[in-house]
Amino acid sequence: MAGRCRLCTSNDEDAVIEHVAAYMWESRMERVEDRTPWDDAGATWKTAFREMALAAKQALTISPLHAVEADAQLTDKAA
Questions:
Q1: CA–CA gap between residue 33 and residue 4 (Å, rounded)
Q2: What is the pLDDT of residues 5-23, one digit of tens each?
Q3: How many CB atoms lie within 10 A of CB 56?
Q4: In this structure, are residues 47 and 78 in contact, taking their beta carbons and an 8 Å threshold?
Q5: pTM for this predicted structure
Q6: Longest dimension (CA), the chain
Q7: Which of 42, 57, 54, 58 is nearest to 79 (CA)?
């Protein structure tokens, strides 16, 4: 299945968000001397990166007409 877009083909939104959040975290850790793996990131950091991952997904997949609905979803996921 090489070449298939995970964002476009996944049926598990939570898994996609988790994957993107972990990937974003790990990409930042490359620049940090005392590297912390995603599994040890802590609840606050994981929540922040999951919110950023959800916002990135929404920016790529939701039309501007649905922006208000997307903002409500982001707020609900953070709570």
A1: 34
A2: 777 788 899 999 999 999 9
A3: 15
A4: yes
A5: 0.70
A6: 43
A7: 54
Segment 74-77 long-range contacts (CB within 8 Å, at least 24 positions apart): 77/50, 77/51
pLDDT digit string, tens, across residues 52-63: 999 998 888 876
CB 53 within 8 A of CB 20: yes
Give the chain as a 3 state SS string: CCCCCHHHHCCCHHHHHHHHHHHHHHHHHCCCCCCCCHHHCCHHHHHHHHHHHHHHHHHHHCCHHHHHHHHHHHHHHHC
**Cα 58 to Cα 52: distance, rounded to the nearest angstrom:** 10
Angle between helices 43-61 and 67-78 (to 10 degrees): 160
